[in-house]
Every structure is written in C-alpha cells, then in structure tokens.
Amino acid sequence: MNSQLAKILESPHFRNSKRSQALLRFILESALSDDHAPLKERSIGAAVFGREIAYDTAQDPIVRNAAIEVRKRLAQYYLEPEHAGELRIDIPIGSYIPSFRVESPAAEPIEQAAPALANAHKWMLAAVALALIGIAAAFLWTTRRTPASELDAFWGSMFRDGKTIQICIGQPTRLYRFTGPRIEELNGLLGAAAGLARDTANLSISPAELTWVAPEYLFLRDALSAFNVASWLQSKGRPYQLASVTATNYSQLRRAPLVVIGAFNNQWAMRVNAELRFAFSRRNDGGVLYDSIDDRRNPNASQWRVAQPVTGTMTEDYAIVTHVFDPATENTVISAAGIETYGTLAASEFITRPEYLGAALRAAPKDWSRKNVQFVLGTKIIDGAPGPPRVLAAHFW
Description:
It is a single chain. The chain is of the alpha+beta class. The strands form four sheets. Strands 3, 6, 7, 11, 12, 13, 14 and 15 form an eight-stranded mixed β-sheet that branches. The protein has a three-stranded antiparallel β-sheet with strand order 8-9-10, with no helix packed on it. The termini are far apart. The longest helix has 25 residues, at 120-144. The chain has helices at residues 2-9, 18-32, 41-49, 62-79, 110-113, 120-144, 149-159, 183-190, 220-235, 250-253, 267-273, 341-350, 354-360; strands at 87-90, 99-102, 165-169, 176-178, 210-212, 240-244, 258-261, 278-285, 288-295, 305-308, 316-326, 331-338, 373-382, 385-386, 390-396. The chain folds into three domains: 2-105 and 121-145, no CATH class; 151-172 and 217-396, Chitobiase/beta-hexosaminidase domain 2-like (Chitobiase, domain 2); 177-198 and 205-212, no CATH class. The chain is built from 13 helices and 15 strands.
C-alpha cells in the first residue's frame, strides 16, 4: 500500500498539489490503521488543514473542496493505461473512508506466466485482504451515513432502462478574443490597471477585431459539478457521456436521460425550467439588472436574485434542482442549475450526496418518487467557495 501511495503522490496529477497529497495520505493512513474516528470532516480539517477542532464546517468547506480535487486527480491517474492493473483507491462521494479494489490486468501469455506462479499465492492473499478492507470500509460507511435510499430513488428513473446518461455542461455565452494586428495593443490597454493607461473612453474596436471563443471554454465550477455527477454515476456502475451545451442537440436528447449543468449558460436548462413553478429570469429593477429565480405562485417575490454584473462582494447564490419527465424528449431530466456557478456546484452536491437530499425529502409526500419535483437552494459563498446547499422551497406534482 505504501508503495502504491508513493507512486500516486509522485505522479504529475498529485506532484504539485500539497493539499491533495496531505489529504490522501491522511485518509489512507487512518483507514489502514483501523481507526476511522479521524475520518470525519471536522477531524480532517483539524488534523490536515490546521483548523480548530470545533470549527464550523458549514462556513468553511475546505475538506469537501479538497476531497473533490483528490477524487478528480485519482480519476485522472487511473485513466492512464499504464495504471490499469494497479491497486485502485477510491474515495466514495459523501465519505472520507477509502475503498480498495484490484483491476484485472491483461492476461499474460502462458510461457510468460510461469515465473509468476511463485508469487501467485501472495498476490491472491493481498487481493483478498484488500477486498476485505474495502468491504469493511463500505460497511462502516453505510452504518454511519444517512441511508442512500432517497438518493437512489431520486435517480431511479434515470437508471431504469440502462441507457447512457447524457451530462450536458453549460458554457460561457459572452467570451471573445482579440484578433488582427492590434492584438497586443488592445490586450495591453484593456488589461492595464485602472488609471490613465486604461482610459478607453475614445477606444474604437471593430467587429473584425473580435472573435467569439465561448464554445472552447467551460467555467471551472461547472466542470467540477459535472465531475460530481459523473463520479456518482460511476460509483453506481452507470454509463454516462459528457458533452458541452454547444455539442448537444435535440436528437441526442431523444435517445437518453439528461443531466443539465448550469442555467443562464445552458439553453437546455432554461428550456426545461421555463414553464415550471420555479424558473430563471433576467429583469431590471430600479435601474439595476438582476438574474433571478421566480416563483410563479408568488410573482411579486424577489428574494432569490443576484445583481449583475457580479462583483467580488457576492456572498450568496441560488439554484434550482429539477427532476422531471420531459414529454418533448420522452426521457427523465435532472437539472442542477445555479444563477451563478457557485449555486450550480452546490446543486451538484445536493443531487449526489445522500445527507443533503435525504434531509430535504423528510417532509416530502410519501409517493414523491413517482412525482416531478423542484427544489430552490441557497448557498453561502465563503472565500470564493460555495457552502452546503440549503433548501429554501420545494414543489412536488
């Protein structure tokens, strides 16, 4: 195990991230010492990141954010063909107790396999031991967490036909790059600090000097949201396919269930929510432009909105999670969509972590799993990261 951990930490995926290295090392050492008590969010925050033992994990999500990063780096590591036969280490979503499994390497030719027989029994014993550790970790996790039945039921209609689930990721809509002979001049002028050097009052830019490049990019938090969903589907052994919104068309949506990431930057999310009780809108109020979530049953309410353009002082974001059967595509659609990308990331955690969805469904109708549902979520923004999702409203029909 130590050699495998060393190999992972020395790989390009972990080499330059001290935070990911520290978290993965602590998790594995605690798990293999049979002491799972430290593998709780607050304990990890104190032991690995120097937080006070009684710190507020809701206000400081450093452990959750670091775990997302570690899961992403592990997934990238094991995607490389040279690591296919290695011991696989996974950190299940919603848990900090690792699981272990051994991928079967390609079969060796018979004439090359003979020298390895002497080590076969040791390898088999190691594999059995690791399997038992994984089973024990899974058992401990299932006995300590909120039952996942609500989360499984929420996703049940997506899994029913065994189809490949489409994950459609929103993209920036207003993103341009300078082109032409004045590239350096314009970049220098508009990239300069405020002051005389940035006096652009009389600046003239022709359309020929701009090229639209939005389809080439994703927002970081939208990408992390898609990763959360993909990791959850992978943990359930479900096939999925990632695609940007610009690469997704209607004929594709007719063939499979859809998970939509993003709101104003994803036309499919806007279409799915457009006629429902909770929907997104953009409005001018007293000369200030807002992006909002509207409640059609309370059209005068305006508590869920974010002023545009967004500034560095933004402290709260809002999101809609929708689970609905879409008659236009004849498939189930789940939408995780924030006004800004903070809300989208919080929404992705809400639909992939049993403790969040389980708490939200305690007051739901008994037959909720056979209904369409929308949740309005709020999330506090602390040091540029979203906190836990909070349910502000729910509607079942």
